[in-house]
Specification:
Helix content: 40-55%
Strand order of the largest sheet: 1-2
Number of domains: 3
Strand content: 5-15%
Structural class: mainly alpha
Oligomer: single chain
Number of helices: 20
Length: 453
């Protein structure tokens, strides 16, 4: 073979061998990633970020994996997504290996990074080690658990909503993971305007957050509106990722869900949870005014006890007659009125009975009320007689018998209290059964103690 042909052959062989290497190099460049229509906005946010000098493959592939066959097959999967998708978004969640972040060239997880107090916002600092040491059941936090893509304006960021979900889900206000001082320093700054900009003299004690904390004043006194929402699981959204409806049956298994989705980096928190907000509002009084449970944590508990006819000692479970057809308060409380404080309320109305039943039922409320009131008066008189019997035998019978009698008296009075405060006509049958049980207690006390007087 002539020297010329050898040279041509050598050049051709080199060209053939270098093409894969050249393509491998070209396909590892950020510009190649950004050439796909579904990647353009991600490329743009990357190019505007602090990581613009870090190639895509340095983060999206673990150290040592960037130039392997495995990496190329992963790239092919993105190519198939590109060819098959007419849309402009990537449906598959990006996976970032922690090792890509903590290499010696980037953010080595040494003591300095682990314990460094980082200013997250103007008033909130963050320490990595604290969050790795204390996680929620089933979780294994990864860098991308907090540092992820949540906005089209940034390639990735730390979303405050993620912080709020972990800190406030399943916690009482200012308790556990939701304690204020975990993120906020207790301030010594005076809260009264008269102390603004002046030196506080020694004999004047200004009100500060610290003085309020020391005095045991609850944070809810001023900040109850700051946390809203419960972060509930949206089980119907399971079907966005899972074909089988059986997947929803396991949705409330916290440990399993966190292992598969958080530790496994398969989903974003808000693919499953509703968000929790943590911010001030303009009208703080309206927040409290519209939520009765803030001031009345168990409002209408006696009415509910009467309507559900809960099982008690000596009284079987006896729900109100209309429970089976799911009749609620608004079916009967149709008449507009005002309470003792002048607040508008809805009262029970005889006309509501007639509207559903017959005209004859219009008198039913009065009849039931009269019957219950008569029986209740008799029971109260019997309670007074039982209490008198207990007083008369003090020192004449054993303390154990007196204590037993008092327990029976207390239980009977509690039954009458349910009827009075729950309005017995909500469930006439159950109310009469409560009165009978209470009367049995009172009469047993009277008979027992009078025999030994």
């Amino acid at each position: 073979m002539s020297p010329k042909k050898k040279a041509v052959l050598f050049f051709f062989v080199v060209l053939v061998l270098s093409l894969p290497l050249g393509f491998e190099y070209y396909s590892s460049q950020p510009g190649f990633c950004g050439s796909c229509h579904i990647m353009k906005k991600y490329y743009r946010t990357w190019n505007d970020s602090k990581h613009r000098n870090i190639a895509c493959v340095d983060c999206h592939y673990a150290p040592g994996e960037q130039h392997t066959i495995t990496a190329k097959f992963k790239g092919l999967s993105q190519l198939f997504s590109y060819l098959a998708s007419p849309g402009s978004t990537v449906r598959k969640r990006a996976y970032i290996d922690d090792q890509s972040c903590v290499t010696s060239k980037c953010h080595p997880m040494d003591e300095k990074l682990a314990t460094k107090k980082i200013l997250f916002t103007e008033n909130v600092s963050y320490v990595h080690k604290t969050h790795f040491d204390k996680t929620i059941e089933g979780q294994k936090l990864h860098c991308a658990t907090c540092h992820n893509h949540t906005s089209s304006k940034a390639h990735f960021n730390v979303s405050e909503e993620t912080c709020f979900l972990c800190h406030f889900k399943n916690t009482e206000f200012n308790e556990g993971r939701g304690r204020c001082y975990l993120c906020h320093e207790v301030s010594d700054k005076p809260l009264q305007k008269q102390f603004e900009g002046i030196k506080v003299v020694s004999d004047v004690k200004p009100i500060t957050h610290r003085s309020l904390e020391e005095a045991g004043v609850s944070c809810t006194s001023c900040h109850i509106e700051l946390v809203r929402g419960t972060g509930e699981i949206k089980t119907e959204d399971c079907l966005n990722c899972h074909e089988e409806e059986e997947a929803t049956a396991k949705a409330l298994d916290k440990k399993l869900m966190h292992e598969k989705h958080v530790a496994g980096q398969q989903a974003d928190c808000f693919n499953c949870h509703e968000s929790i907000t943590h911010k001030e509002v303009d009208d703080i009084l309206e927040v409290v005014r519209s939520q009765c449970k803030f001031c009345h944590p168990d409002h209408h508990m006696y009415q509910k006890a009467i309507l559900t006819g809960e099982k008690l000692e000596g009284v079987p479970k006896t729900p109100a007659l209309m429970t089976e057809v799911k009749t609620n308060c608004l079916a009967c409380h149709t008449k507009k009125g005002v309470d003792a404080q002048g607040q508008p309320i809805l009262r029970g109305s005889p006309e509501a009975c007639a509207a559903c039943h017959t005209k004859e039922h219009k008198n039913m409320l009065k009849e039931w009320q009269a019957a219950i009131s008569k029986e209740l008066t008799t029971a109260k008189n019997s309670a007074a007689e039982a209490e008198s019997a207990i007083s008369k035998v003090k020192g004449k019978v054993s303390k154990e018998r007196v204590d037993e009698a008092r327990d029976m008296l207390t239980k009977g009075k509690h039954y009458l209290r349910i009827i009075e405060l729950g309005h017995g006509l909500h469930n006439k049958k159950y109310s009469i059964m409560l009165i009978d049980a209470a009367m049995n207690n009172f009469e047993d006390i009277i008979d027992d103690l009078n025999d030994n007087e």
